[in-house]
Design goal:
263 residues; alpha/beta; Rossmann fold; 6-stranded mixed beta sheet; 4-stranded antiparallel beta sheet
Amino acid sequence: MTAPLLEAIGLTKRFARARTSLVGERGWLTAVNDVSFTLETGRSVAIVGESGSGKSTLARMIIGLERPDAGQVRVMGQAFAPLTERQRRPLRRHVQMVFQDPASSLDPRLRIAAIVDEPLRGLTDAGAAERRAKTVAALEAVGLSVDMMANYPHQFSGGQRQRIAIARALVTEPPVVVADEPLSALDASVQAQVLNVMIGLKRAGKATFILITHDLAAAAHLCEDVLVMQAGVMVERGPLRAVFDAPQHSYTQALLAARRALD
């Protein structure tokens, strides 16, 4: 039996609160509490909820940027978290991330060719010619021209910078791409363009996405499954259409009602 692309098992993360006095006990905030889900090939999953629900902390544990206090992540059947970064490095190329703000996630000192090539240099043994070919292919996959490779991030629009960030995530051909609010920093018209790029990549079999978002419409366009977070707890999960058409939890019902009211 083939292992799932990714398994999150009982992930829990707590953060210390500031002391209210010199002698008072330190309190704790549980940002994510015992969350589990499975990502299968070709079935992208949306993790939805309001700000502060634990979505981004969950994403950072999945990608290895936060060490869970309990639980584990397995990638293609192999342990990924809570290993150290050195132990996790051989698997790092299989799970990549697209961050919320493309302006801050791209090094302004580097040309686009170097930015997209960086994961190949750090995570693979590919030679210069192979790396260039993969860089060109990744940029073309997100609709950017090879002529842009010598430019710097500031020379691009916000939507183009997010495409560059997606190209960087794709360049090692990872089966899993974690996208943490990839549309929220963009104008509405540009959001549609970037979302269409992600949909096209998925349909072409280039990636299966974990989409962290509060945008239920984007989730419905890209994902087959959904996981609903409230105050660090997973309150509902299942096939996206089934959950959106007949939500069982009151929080999910409220999220959908608010979206419909905005529409």
